[in-house]
Structures
1.
Amino acid sequence: MGLYKNLFKQTAIYGLATVLPRMFSFLLVPLYTDLLPKAEYGKVTIIFAWMIFFNVILAYGMETAFFRFYNKEENKQTVVETSMVSIFWTTIVFLVLALLFRTSLADWSGIDSQYISYAIWILALDALVIIPFSKLRAFQKPMTYAIIKIGNVLVNLLLSIVFLIYLPKLSAVNPTGLISSFYIENFQIGYIFLANIIASLLTFVVLSPDYVFLKWKFDFSLWKKMMVYGLPILVAGIAFAINEQFDKILLDRLLPKNIAEDAVGEYSACYKLGLFMVLYRTAYTLGIEPFFFSHASNKNAPQTYAMVTKYFVIFGSFIMLSVIVFADFFKMLMIRDESYWIAMKVVPLIILANFCLGIYTNLSVWYKLIDKTYIGAYISIVGAIITLVLNFLLIPSHSYLGSAIATLAAYGSMMLISYYLGNKYYPIPYDFKKIGGYLGLSVLFSIISFYYFRENYFVGIALLLLFLYFIYHNEKTTLMNILKRKNNL
């Protein structure tokens, strides 16, 4: 149980580093939806969707390659140096070229060139801290990692509040004062990106000693091996970005112009209610990836991975059911403008889709451990194809409901394909009966609660309690062993 305790501890801290920043970001949703028209919120969403693609490209799989070779190579410092030098120079090249061609990018994307410039600087600053953050995880410094991550988003949140709420008010009180000289009317989107730039810059400054004290040694032979390992992850990352973000872009392109940006705004706002599952999935992934690699050589590793996956599904199933039962309560906290609520029908699909993605993350450990990351790229490409095809087919007739269906179909397919191939190349003794039982029952209860007894919390809470009893009934032996261990301490 020591392995699981260590995993839980790391996941809890990384979860703190993920949950708190996301919760701060949570507060930005009501801020944006209160102050921005749906069309303007749609524009912000589309810009950030494009930024996700470039985040993946600028990382080009180096983060995962770093963890793999850091645990594999004897000279770990060489891995650190080579990774940082590689990311630094590719980022500088991107920054120069992107700024030179920002006007062309603006014409091609239909986004204002000023916002393009802001996005370029944010992307570059965020890319430069990829390996410093990875080092903190590899050196097992989760608290430092958490403090910096939380600080980044807290600065972003506070500056957004100042720029969007207090700056206009102070300027109105004293139009000729010093503060009013900093206020630009109808510049809400610009202020959103300005807050992001300042937060990213401060994060880079905090982590800049990693570059100051860098010896700038570059092992070209090691770099080639890391690139061979990482490039398939880049392809998988691009495919993932398509699955995660391209629906917003396609909604903007495929729907009539008079409703497209409003639809993107509605969909994006309600999509955020899936954040609880995203938080759980992301926090778990941050803790599990170093854990998987560091325990890969243990002879009982497959049994460990099977147990971890089962408990991921147990907790995830309960989170999914809880969020769906209380979805209409959460919408009143997050999205106060009722005009956005028309898209609430996508919420169960998005939550289940993110849960499937989390299960896929567990199942995908096998191809990373046997250095066949290209298989992960193939699986992600299949998911991306499903996303694109279904979005093109369904958006014209079903709008964002079609996008939600496409997202669920893509992640569900990736989960099943990974399970099938994993059994072939790296068999792991998953308790398929229990995993399927927890997943199936939580989906069934979610359907009953949301589609038949929506906002009837007596029924919803009863279903939650029944599900908890089901967990206790099946896992009581393990739970009793844990309690006995605690009593013996």
2.
Amino acid sequence: MKKKRNIAGKEILVESLKLPRDTVLGESIITLTGKKDVLIENYKGIISCNDAIIWLQTKHGKICLEGRGLNIVYYTNEDMKITGTIEHISIV
């Protein structure tokens, strides 16, 4: 219970001071360029990957990308670029 209260307190602080959520709370940033390119920042790891579906672990959940011909062009500790035809993105 204490951890949830701590997270809620941080969120209130971020909102009131207008701080960037990605920097302070470790929120992921998803930048989609058309239907062909996506840049994911602040992810923890790759759960599974094939040309139709990619699952990523984030600090606060999971990101699922679905499409055709998906390919991880590059990945670092901070970000990754995925190309292909992106049909659906979900965050769980």
3.
Amino acid sequence: MVRKTEHVMAAVCEMGLARRATRSVYRTLFFSMLLFGVFVGTQFPLFAEQALNTSKAISPSFYVMCVGAGLVVGLFNFFLFKIVVSKELFRLLVGMRKINESMDQALHTDKQFELACELEVTSNDLVGEVAQTFNNMSAAIAERINQESLVRTLMADLSSTVDPKRVAENILAAVLKVAECQGGMLLSLQGEELEPLASIGLDEGVRLPANLDELSEGAVHAIKRGKVVELAPGERGLEKVRVQTPTGQVRPNFFVLVPLVTGSRTVGLIVLPGLHSSLVPARLQLIDVFRIHVAPYLYNALLHRKIGEMAALDWLTRILNRRFGMRRLREEFSRSLRHGLALSVIILDIDHFKMVNDTYGHAAGDAVLKEVASQLKKNIRSGETVCRYGGEEFMILAPGNDLHDGSVLCERIRKLIEKTTVRWAGQDLQVTVSLGVATWPVIPASVVNEIISAADEALYFAKESGRNRVAIHQGDDVRLYAEPAIATN
């Protein structure tokens, strides 16, 4: 787009230089005025003869005098025109040069184009119309150049990251600038689910729609067709959205839904709440074009995240695999060493898992593994991590949990799994787990393998003690966990 603008400007300049080299408006005007004076001078004696009824009007001397007078009047008109009109033309020329300098600077740098000089319209004739037309043209070019600069900057930002949230924030900020809206949000669309990725200028306490079912049928139809659509303020799923303004939260007068489509896939949705009557058609057209450029970047970021998740997750249980679980352990252990925070590591093993496989088959064993992993994932707190450590073993990382907290967590998990039933082939399968816990700094470990070895030792002790138990590594020895007795009056 920028190259095209440069080529057009270059062509116009070349045409102007070529014409200036072969033509001169003032030269043409000069000779025209002289010819006009000669014409009037030769015709005036004939007019005078008829009007005054005298033959002296067509005498050679009178002819010469009239032609001379015509030449003088022509020269006078030429210089008068040159003085009056040149002044206006020079004023227009100075303004045009300043605007062209700003335009050239904006085309070759990332600076925003600003009109260095707006021509003053001092008359309502052709000269004034030229000045006003040039001002309008300059404003249109300025907007076009600034839009191209915005696109270039945005593309550079989008190319520098594959983090979906950063990509979404960059896209949303640019779209808000294009649309001249004070707030908006961007959500990714995966199947029927909407995931909020970025929000600017909106009330953060409002729950955003998490599924297409929460929006109206018309909105869903437009999203699936990939069409930009304007909706009324009471739209289902968006009725509680408020825009933050200097005077407080304001209810929007309308919503514009902007699906981000790449190929035939809708990968995201931008919601623009408006505080005026509606967006002007030119803005809507610009947004419609703009979204085509940014949608592939959002798709690539989401795809990159999905690939990363697939690499990090165990294919069967859909929790972290051992490799990424160990990576998280090293990160948490390093943080604990820096800040002196406790870190509990729990290793648990499904009791008699081989018997389940031998009795019911490996498909039943897979069902048990998935159910145990699901229960663990649902019943750990934010900040805690569970991974499949190997086979039927799982590892839980509990940052900030001291030995007592880690032991209580183990016992809670043990009871939870004990009460869990896995439905398989018309039968209810019940399993138990044994758990071992070790905590830094009770275990004075300097590397992660030392704390894992301590948790493994505790797990072995729990299994040797009869299974379905929790064992605690206390540094010097290992003992079984016993819940404190409830005091009775």
4.
Amino acid sequence: MTVETRELKFSTKGEVQLIDITGKVAAELEKCSITNGIVNIHVPGATGAITTIEYEPGLLADFPDALERLFPKGLVYEHHLRWHDGNGHSHVRASMLGPSLTVPFNDKNMLLGKWQQVIFCELDARPRDRTVILQIIGD
């Protein structure tokens, strides 16, 4: 078994920016020596998340709306009261979505559904420079 670690780096605009990283992950799989296995896609930090979605305009509008209904920005968050950084809702949203996703791949192709893309969710209230770690494991 072989393990390779790669990084994706990019800047975000903040506040529920959804970024399709499927192509970037696929490009790293293509460059690695591993043909079959799993790739764990992970964002270090407490206000970013990784998930999948059908990356189309309707869902790109629905996703932030759903987050606002579930975890409203305007609520009182103890985190904000303690740190005064206005991103308590960002931390809660990121915790619920999760920082990692594992996707199997075969012949260097991720085994995703026809309409399924891997996305990075910027949930912080401000722009950020982000690093996404790819831990590629297999043969």
